[in-house]
């Protein structure tokens, strides 16, 4: 077991849930020693984990950096490995004067060996995109975690590549931002399902974001949608993915109403991961009454969808499902309880809101298990 720092992305709560599922999924033995809330992209946890986490980190969606902890206290700087170009990331303090002092201290140590320079990121911590553009991993990111008077020193050893996610999002042939889920969230959802191998279905596959992520992760991918057009879209995107990302396998795709999965598939699935139809786009934020009405109508489809999931899922299989919640005109959020899940033989394991004040409909990601 080794000690690491892990920097969470925008949604701390969702990232933490993903990290725990990710640990079980790849048997990484993650133990969370401390957890610190900060601004978006600057919350972090100090963890112990098997070294395998370094190899699997590229499969994580909601965290942005993996930092190897080198030691405690400023003296640790002396044991850092030399780099010609580096930057400093500070978590738990927002103080440019301190940032500059730390940069100079590290530079002085490095210069005993050879010339060294450091560069300034936009904030007191560097984002993965800044690091990649400056030549990470040759260019180093020296990290300081400040917590109650003590400091932990480490070095970033892995980052999630925002350019790869961007490419998946905007360079694929069929892009429909209004109905598509962000690739980063698709990646998080695959981890939440905890499937390591096996058959996985997205029964509302749309343009295929989740299906593409399943293929990237080497899972046996199935996708279906009620619309023939969307299945064509998914097919085009999957072909592009196979060329651009050198993915060997393809996906099994069907036109199928979610209510009739049993008729469309012989397979029994290890997981269902999906973002369903979430109603018509709203022009303005709904009132509570309107939200209740929309949600109730959608629930009719979701009820039938889960009935159908019951027919094609293996026992104890997981469903990772996005339910809509509503930002209300009068302020606050409308989230719905769904006691019928229990009646249909499903158990809610966890749910996290992907809060976003700009949108009228917000995502609530659920992890649900079939009993
Ligand atoms: C929000 S989109 C899914 C987006 C997808 N996650 C993506 O990133 O492209 C919802 C999809 O559900 C499909 N749909 C609506 N009603 C359906 C039904 N009864 N059965 C299956 N698919 C349905 C729509 O055609 C649409 O493509």
UniProtKB/TrEMBL annotation:
Name of the protein: TRM11 family methyltransferase
InterPro entries: RlmKL-like_Mtase (IPR000241), SAM-dependent_MTases_sf (IPR029063)
CDD domains: AdoMet_MTases
Entries under Pfam families matching the protein: UPF0020
UniProt entry tagged with the keyword Manganese: no
Gene Ontology biological process terms in this record: methylation
SUPFAM superfamilies: S-adenosyl-L-methionine-dependent methyltransferases
GO molecular function, one term: methyltransferase activity
Residues in Ribosomal RNA large subunit methyltransferase K/L-like methyltransferase domain copies: 181-324
Record key words, sorted: Methyltransferase, S-adenosyl-L-methionine, Transferase
């Amino acid at each position: 077991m080794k000690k690491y720092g892990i920097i969470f992305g925008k949604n701390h709560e969702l990232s933490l849930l993903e990290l725990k599922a990710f640990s079980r999924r790849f048997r990484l033995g993650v133990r969370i020693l401390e957890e610190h809330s900060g601004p978006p992209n600057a919350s972090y946890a100090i963890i112990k984990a098997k070294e395998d986490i370094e190899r699997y980190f590229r499969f994580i969606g909601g965290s942005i950096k993996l930092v190897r902890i080198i030691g405690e206290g400023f003296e640790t700087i002396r044991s850092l490995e030399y780099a010609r170009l580096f930057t400093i990331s500070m978590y738990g303090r927002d103080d440019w004067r301190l940032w500059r002092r730390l940069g100079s201290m590290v530079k002085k140590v490095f210069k005993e060996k050879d010339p060294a320079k450091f560069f300034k990121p936009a904030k007191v911590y560097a984002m993965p995109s800044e690091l990649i553009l400056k030549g990470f991993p040759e260019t180093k990111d020296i990290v300081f975690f400040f917590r109650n008077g003590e400091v932990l020193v480490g070095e970033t050893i892995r980052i999630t590549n925002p350019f790869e996610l961007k490419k998946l999002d905007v360079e694929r042939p069929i892009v429909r931002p209004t109905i598509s889920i962000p690739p980063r969230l698709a990646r998080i959802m695959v981890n939440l399902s905890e499937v390591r191998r096996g058959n996985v279905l997205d029964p509302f596959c749309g343009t295929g974001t989740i299906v593409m992520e399943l293929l990237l992760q080497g899972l046996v991918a199935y996708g279906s949608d009620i619309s023939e057009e969307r299945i064509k879209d998914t097919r085009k995107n999957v072909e592009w993915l196979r060329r651009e990302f050198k993915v060997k396998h393809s996906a099994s795709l069907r036109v199928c109403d979610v209510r009739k999965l049993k008729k469309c598939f012989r397979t029994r699935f290890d997981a269902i991961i999906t973002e369903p139809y979430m109603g018509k786009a709203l022009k303005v934020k709904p009132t509570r009454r309107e939200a209740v009405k929309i949600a109730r109508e959608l629930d009719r489809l979701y009820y039938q969808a889960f009935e159908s999931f019951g027919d094609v899922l293996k026992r104890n299989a997981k469903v990772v499902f996005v339910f809509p919640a509503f930002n209300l005109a009068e302020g606050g959020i409308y989230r719905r309880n769904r006691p019928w899940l229990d009646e249909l033989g499903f158990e809610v394991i966890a749910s996290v809101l992907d809060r976003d004040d700009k949108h009228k409909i917000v995502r609530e990601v659920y992890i649900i298990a079939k009993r």
